[in-house]
Design brief:
mainly alpha
């Protein structure tokens, strides 16, 4: 599914909504996802003077693990509740 941009929280929640799945909470994830995307974009566009600490790597790793766990729970709940069969407007 094309996202039209980086897979930020808004795009992720749009995809979840398309399958009638519960959205990820903004207050929990938005700031950290935006920070990860900022690092990703700087690296992807050739930023050479970007210090990345082990603490940041650990923080982003934990963020991705938490995001995947939350998304998996939403997919599992959606499957159990058959929410993917609901019509979206």
């Amino acid at each position: 599914m094309p996202t039209g941009s980086n897979l930020n929280l808004k795009a992720t929640n749009h995809i979840l909504d398309r399958f009638s799945l519960k959205k990820l909470p903004v207050e929990t994830f938005e700031k950290d996802i935006n920070e990860l995307l900022l690092f990703r974009n700087k690296i992807a566009h050739g930023e050479k003077n970007l210090p990345v600490t082990q603490q940041e790597v650990d923080q982003f790793t934990l963020l991705v693990e938490n995001l995947m766990a939350e998304i998996l729970l939403r997919i599992s709940d959606g499957y159990d509740q058959r929410s993917y069969l609901k019509q979206n407007s």
